[in-house]
Amino acid sequence: MTPRRALRVAHFSDLHFGPRNLAEADRCFGAAIKRAVDAGVDAAVISGDSTDHALDLHSPSAAALVSRVRRLADHCPVMMLQGTWSHEPPGTLSVFRELGGRHAVHVADRIGQVGLTAAGDWVVSPGWYFDALPEGLVALFSCLPSVNRAAIAAALGAADAAGATGEHVSALLRGLAPSHAMARQLGLPTLLLSHGTVFGCTTEHGVPMAGFDHEFTTGSLFDAGAQAVLLGHIHRHQCWERDTSGGRRCIAYAGSIGRFHHGEAGDKGFLLWRVGPDSATCHLEATPARRTVDISFDGKPDLGALRAALVAQPVEGAWVRLRWSVPEEERNDVDRAALRELLAGAAGVQLEGRVLPVVRVRSGGIGQAGAMRDKVAAWAGVVGARPEPLWSCLDELAADETQRIVGDALAEPDVAAAVDAQGPGGEASSGLKEVELAEDCLEVSGGAHA
Ligand SMILES: [Mn+2]
Question: Based on the domain organization, do 31 and 152 belong to the same domain?
């Protein structure tokens, strides 16, 4: 058999065309296609999330995406994989089947295998895999669209769906291994395409994904026996390699085509793959994704510090997110207009102020205390006062009639003098008792602090 040249594949992913991302997605995907065409790739794969959500046919995003894919199809055969169902509602990709172009566009929205012929046509397996490989193939692609969790829940019950997904996907991937071995023996490159989460991968925000409801592990993916695994879903490029008796195998996320959110680390781009029957390599070709800058202040934004930071790191043309957090009473002291003026050269500015609510400390435990005596003790504990003088007042209230207490109080020489100075009046008497109590408390609490 004549050794075949490695297949060169451009792998784009997570384009997220939609009104919010249109400028970024279109600029980056456009640049990526130009680069792939210049490199003379043999085939192109879009591994899911071509759209951000359902698009109307008259939306500029739909027209832009269709136009870009058509440009790609005029250069080489194109494979589009179904991504996350909420991003690409069922049927979203169907229109691309009718797109035309010099080469065919295959839409993979069900589990199956697809052979690429020397003439650049796609040959689709009747079932979920080929029993026997068709004649004249130059490569074998196995397609596993995004798992429809709703369908799994409907089949297995909602309680079992999360954990069972990984097991079923693993079984399916193992089931593909014999056909990949068969293709390898015929000298064909084998590629597995899917859209989902690999246990242990890292998101674009640096978060490791280590839940138990993920579709894949690197082990289950390598067990499929394909030379190259082209993944979508996670927006950060990353790859895993393994040397096997069948040569080097590689799993990789292309990552999103552009930078769609603040705080996304790393380069954005697409992957150029070279896949042979017993080899696989990929490398990231960067796209002109937008530059984002994060600035945050612990308290109120300090205009002087911001000015200095902008000299050290200019933000001209960048997308800036400025965050701060202030206590409630300072919420209106932030001069947003001045901030915007300082950041005038940025392509976009997102101001995110966080207001810390004022937390009033209450007497902890006072709600749990049953008796009034215990409530007073809890209060005294919080403010650092002695409870005893208050307890005696409480006892007096419980034991004596109010009028009697007032009478006693008025009989005390100091109080009588004070009442004389203010002039007579029964109504004022109870007020005086309150004053006396309050002074008592102050005195006590002062003593405790000393
Ligand atoms: Mn995505």
Answer: yes
What integer is the mean pLDDT of 136-159?
90
Mean per-residue pLDDT, 140-156: 90
**2 assigned to some structural domain:** no
Residue 52 Cα to ligand 1 midpoint, Å, equals 8
Task: Check residue 210 and give its pLDDT.
Answer: 87
pLDDT in the model for residue 1: 41
Collect residues with CB below 5 Å from ion ligand 1: 14, 49
Distance 434 CA to ligand 1 centre (A): 68
**Ligand 1 centroid to 400 CA: how many Å?**
76
* 310 contacts 340 by C-beta, under 8 angstroms: no
Q: How far is the CA of 83 from the centre of ligand 1 (A)?
A: 7
Same domain assignment for residues 316 and 268: no
Residue 145 is classified by DSSP as P
Give the list of residues 6+ apart from residue 114 with CB closer than 8 angstroms, or none: 79, 106, 108, 122, 123, 124, 125, 140, 141, 142, 143
Q: Is residue 335 part of a domain?
A: yes
Q: How far apart are CA 259 and CA 236, in angstroms?
A: 10
The DSSP annotation for 314-348 comes to --TT-EEEEEEEEEGGGGGG--HHHHHHHTTTSSE
Residue 379's CB is within 10 A of a number of other CB atoms, namely 18
CATH number at residue 34: 3.60.21.10
- Does residue 106 sit in the same domain as residue 29? yes
Residue 204 banded pLDDT, cuts 50, 70, 90: very high
H or E element, residue 238: strand 238-244
Considering 256, 286, 316, which residue would you say is the last residue of a domain?
286
CA–centroid distance, residue 405 to ligand 1 (Å): 76
| Structural domain includes residue 362 | no
Range from 290-294, 367-371, 423-427 carrying the lowest mean pLDDT: 423-427
Tell me the per-residue pLDDT of 66-87, one tens digit each, with 9 for 90 and over. 999 999 999 999 999 999 999 9
Q: Decide if pLDDT at 436 tops 60.
A: no
User: What is the value of pTM for the model shown?
Assistant: 0.77
Domain's final residue, options 316, 331, 356: 356
Full residue range of the structural domain in which residue 103 is found: 7-286
Ligand 1 mean position, distance from CA 112 (Å): 22
Cα(427) to ligand 1 centroid in Å equals: 75
Q: Is residue 233 part of a domain?
A: yes
Q: Are residues 301 and 405 in the same domain?
A: no
Task: Report residue 297's pLDDT band, with 50, 70 and 90 as the boundaries.
Answer: very high
pLDDT of residue 417: 67
Distance (Å) from CA 46 to ligand 1 centroid:
11
